[in-house]
């Protein structure tokens, strides 16, 4: 069986779906952060595969999708740093990392 | 002659130098050393004075060279421009009215500029000494320089709006300087009062200015668009001879000739700025400001702005005898009234303030009798002696340590302590009293002479002139009396401060703070203060020699030594006896009478004063006061004018303000603001309930959004828009990225076009064989009374007949009062008109006894209807329209397709015959129609 673009996109969708469901059903903020990472990486897979099968105007030298993936990785790293810092201070406040306990900013 | 410096450019710097001084001192003065502040202030004014001298000397040279209308003009730039719109009814085209920043120095403004800069310089010098202890020195000099700049703009401006800038500027500086010591509430209130009262007058100036400029612009307008500098004094004065024409409208009920209306409004402005009845009340209170301010602004320069304005526009004022008479009588009444008040006042500056009001009255009396030259002459001489008097009073106050004002009852004998002040004060008193050979004598004589000339004017001139002469003679007597009363009480006798203090200690009703004794050891003021006094004192005597006519004419009438009038001639129009009809020249005894009465008034006043205060030691005055205590009190309380205004104007205004304030508190704040704020709060409270604060809920909504967006981008969304007219319709599909379209134009399931991506719209022209539905368009026709034909149609409903095949009009859409009658006229109950379609697609209507009209013809039987027919039942209109529809199918890049269908109802104006085979078929009736009889 030839592994083509469809398979990669399918993998990406599955990863994204797992991330989405994980984010929605889990109450542990750490797990939710990991789910977000999973979604971002699903996007990375999609970006890289599209770059492979549908390169831009530069042909074989066109790596814009991969460069985008790098950007996503960088942003994800920053997000994780900030997110973990927030989780840390939240834990000091609540002695817990359950996201449904956190609704102070509601009103 | 090439100095590298143009005389005309010096005009600009005359204004700019004091302005620069004001800016520098205003911004940096508070950080600078006091000597530097003084130097900047003094230097800028001195520079302006030197430049004024330079420009003025050029003017004199030109005049000596025989150039009669010599003037120096400097145009900086066009400030703004107005447009008088075209008036096609009068055949006038539009007029552009440019307004320039333009300064002109002619003989009139030249004299004023010299007075302002010269006396201003002396008073700046004086202030260096007088204000040496004050912590607000920089602020003071900034205001004073700003005043100089404004006043110079006022007199040098070549057009009314620019003059108005100066006019407002001096008003502002006056306000700032009256309230200079604003931490004393009474002084701040005096400043406010001056500002508000002046505002009333400024309103008049604006209205007068617009009347004049509007008239001039209309005068010069023609059939093609023109440009007229209608605000220029020169242009206005040129058009003055035509200003006796009646104004075609009234301004606040004031009508009459252009000159009358404009003159009255301008004079209203003058009564405010120049402290005439009824707006003089601010000037006595203005003495709250530092004394140099009183001398410069409220005696020598600013308050004469009104006189200057009248003289600047003298040709206009000469056109209206009403205005002249008003000015003359108001002026002379002010002169007399203020003099009566000054007679009994006890504060030095108060006496001088009322004296100023009175002398300004003299000037306006001169304006009113048409002696504009004399008015400016009095402005000129008065500037010297009144400035000297105020500065002398300031010197006295400085010397004895009086703050605000000095009570003459506590002074006396100061001639031993301050000889320079005493001598200059005495010289000025002689001048203002009108002692022959002093300046006041000449200018006052010129005014009295003018009043006598007025008596020669036919039609009321005798009355006005005589009244003015009499009033001024009395006022002049009182002037001599109160001025020498002031002099004697201040400088003669013995120093009474110590006595006053011991009395104050013994008496029970001394008011605190005011009762403190003055410095027991008065001393002469420093040089910076006495030098201006000496210059002004000498000036008070000699400046009158510019017009020696009154003295010369006592001896001979062949010699004229009137340099003043000759100098002003090109700029100021005067009422002269020679120009009057039926008068060759005025009687020679006018000269003797004016000089004689003036001298007599002076002698009477001065002698009475001497009797009362030197020989009698003040006892005769007290005796008279105790004889008529109520009159004395009335005069002492200044005719209670302030109380009157307070009762009539200020109190109602305050009450109104209270009402308005409570309205604001209860209605605006209480209802409008609270209502809107609480409704917003309620909305906020409601919308905040939606927020759960739980992250997973937000996440779920986000996921839902992603699902929706995914669907949205995968599925095409065509929208079909229809516009139709008569037999044609246009269908247009909304564009989308990557969309392809194909059309089924008549919605018969067969696509007429293939896939393409550029055909976004199709035109549909109805053809006879095209499929369509019958549609009934029901609307109510409203008949508007008094109008022929159809009125507005109100759409009620549309009924598609394809599906039902038949339709019975519901009774609810039928017009009220609609009735069906049989042949005998009986009202029928039962089914309403019904529509049906047979198998071959023919539409028929069954009236069911209704009074039905098809295309205007009444029908009673089943009738065939073509598309485009019109049925009426009473006011109900039913149009048979054709409904056609088009379908478009859209395909996006993923190959997904979606179609949209739109209908167009073609409402035809005329029935459209559709060719068909005649078929006879059995009709099927709707249930509700079964009961009625059919053939």
Could you characterize what this model shows?
- The complex is a heterodimer of chains A (107) and B (935).
- Chain A contains three helices and no strands.
- Chain A has 107 residues and is an all-alpha fold.
- Chain A is elongated and about 55 Å long.
- Chain B is elongated.
- In chain B, strands 6, 8, 9, 15, 16, 18, 19 and 20 form an eight-stranded antiparallel beta sheet that branches.
- Chain B starts with 6 loop residues before the first helix and ends in a 29-residue tail after the last strand.
- With 935 residues, chain B is of the alpha+beta class.
- The chains are: A mainly alpha (107), B alpha+beta (935).
- The interface between A and B is medium-sized, with 14 and 11 residues.
Largest interchain contact:
A-B, 14 and 11 residues
- Find the count of extended strands of chain A (DSSP E, 2+ residues): 0
Give the structural class of chain B: alpha+beta
Name the quaternary structure: heterodimer
Helix fraction of chain A by DSSP (H/I, runs of at least 4): over 70%
**Main sheet: strands, sense, barrel of chain B:** 8 strands, antiparallel
Average pLDDT of chain B: 84
- Give the overall silhouette of chain A: elongated
Number of helices of chain A: 3
Q: Characterize the main sheet of chain A.
A: none
Q: Note the gap between the termini of chain B.
A: 122 Å
Computed over alpha carbons, the radius of gyration of chain A is 18 Å
Query: What are the secondary-structure elements of chain A, in order, as H or E?
Result: HHH
CA radius of gyration of chain B: 46 Å
